[in-house]
Structures are given as structure tokens and as C-alpha cells.
Amino acid sequence: MRVFLTGATGFIGSAVIPELLQAGHQVVGLTRSEAGARQMAVAGADSHRGSLEDPDSLRAGAAQADGVIHCAFDHDFENFLANCDKDRRAIEALASALVGTDRPLVITSGAGMGSPGDGRPAVEDIFNLEHPNPRSASEVAGQAALSTGVNVSVMRLPQVHDPVKQGLITPAVEIARAKGVSAYVGDGANRWAAGHVLDVARLYRLALEHAKPGARYHAVAEEGVTAREIAEVVGDGLKVPVVSLTPEKAAVHFGWMARFITLDMPASSAWTRRELGWTPTGPSLIEDLEAMNYAA
Questions:
Q1: CA Rg value for the chain
Q2: 177-211 per-position pLDDT tens digit
Q3: What is the pLDDT of residues 148-180, one digit of tens each?
Q4: What are residue 161's DSSP bridge partners?
Q5: Pick from 127, 292, 123: nearest CA to 218
Q6: For residues 59 and 50, what is the distance between their CA atoms, to the nearest angstrom?
Q7: How far apart are the C-alpha atoms of 246 and 4, rounded to whole Å?
Q8: Are 86 and 135 contacting, i.e. CB atoms less than 8 angstroms apart?
Q9: b/e burial code for range 95-128 (CB count within 10 A of at least 16 → b)
Q10: pTM
Q11: What is the C-alpha to C-alpha distance for residues 61 and 115, in angstroms, rounded to an integer?
């Protein structure tokens, strides 16, 4: 299969490339730069020049592919709402090139979108439009494309990690470094689901090959790691105190990240594992945080 991959030079996309190539697929990755094209050539992929801000480039890339994986996202979280809307427009552009075909489009969302809203883990058969994460715009765009006959499925991500990056925990580490304390809020019992980047990359491939319209998959290896556990291992790595903050103090301490830091985001992947035969094998989130080079 000739696969058009957005986010091909990013953290997750760069792991998806070898996963697809080893399975016999051809990869054409989206890039806005010559440096990105060189990176993909080294990885064994072709490149397509464009960006999330250029819908014509997205349509052209999708039109020439047998399948599309869209894992690009602008991770400037200080402009998170605007970037969620940018992702909606990107999905609309990609989908418009696939109308009238059965070629699969795998888009990306957050595992929290499946939350039932009562503290139970998020599940694949729920789409919670009331969830505070504006990433719901991605799934709304996916549903609209599905209604036009596009073969859309959704990959919902938890905190995706290795010993270098760990989703939202990465900026939390930098805040702890800058503030001289590793903090959690209240009792720190709120949970974040997690998945190792190589397990996540494998699941993207399986979702593409399965090509089930309307399916939602959870790339979740660990249902929930508590904020306190995360803060403790980060504090140990940075050699700084670990402290509990009140919600009022957390707003000042965490800045833009305060909106995320108290969210309880456990998620299940039981259906995903059964449906795709996916068994995560990578290190746990805590293991990767313990292995990180905090001096780097």
C-alpha cells in the first residue's frame, strides 16, 4: 500500500515509518522543508512537500495514496484551541480527496474523548462531546467525513512516551526544572493513560490495514498512572522536592498547563486489543521516566 503520512518527521510519525516499511508498505511523508525530506530519505520514505496550513498540499498527497495516516498536530499548547481547529481543517482537506473511494484514512484524537464522564476509564464506543479537551474537533471532522462515505477511523492517543518524550509530561518536566519543585495537585490521584511510542506505531499500522469505517482505537498500554507517581519520579530525576499544590496555586505554578494537570484521564484498550490483536510490549511510562537523562 502507498501510504501518505502526515507528521512523518515528528515523534510518533518517525516511529510509524519503519513500522509501515517493515510490513511492506511504501511511505510518502508530508514535510515543509528540505531537512525533513532528507530525514525521510534516510528513513527509506519518499516525501511530499506541504503543511497543515496548506489544504491543497494535503489533498494532493491523499489523492495519490492508497491510504492515509494523519498523525501530525501542532503541539503549541499555548494556542491549543486554535491548533485543534487547524487539525479539523486538515482532516476535512484529507477526507475531501478520498470521497468516493474505499481508501482508509486514520486520523488522530485523544483517549479522553471516550470518557463516560463519571471517573470510569474512557472506552472506544463512547464519543464524549462534553469532554473539556477541544481535540473533539478532530473527531467531529472525522464523523462528518464518515457521513460522506469516507473510510475514516480514529486513533485515540494517551501520553505517548519513550525515554526522551512523554506527551504532556515533557512540558511538566520543564516546568519542574524551571520552578525547582515537581508538583501535583491535591492528593495527585488523577490518572493519565499511557502507551509506548513503538506500540502506538504498530497500532497505527494495524488500524490502517484493518480499514474499518467508523472504528475508534485506543493506543493505551497502561490504563492510568497517577499524577503523584509521575511527579515523584520526575522529582527524583531532577533532584528537586515533590510537593502538593492547591488548585489556586497550581494555576500560577503550571501556567497554560494548569488546564490539563488535574484532568483524570484513565482509558481502556480492551476492545482495541481484541479487535486488532494488539498486545503492547514496550516499557511502562514510569520505566521510561526513570531511564530519561534529566541532565540533557
A1: 19
A2: 999 999 999 999 999 999 999 999 999 999 999 99
A3: 999 999 999 999 999 999 999 999 999 999 999
A4: 166, 196
A5: 123
A6: 10
A7: 46
A8: no
A9: bbbbeeeebbbbbbbbbbbbbeeeeebbbbeebb
A10: 0.96
A11: 33
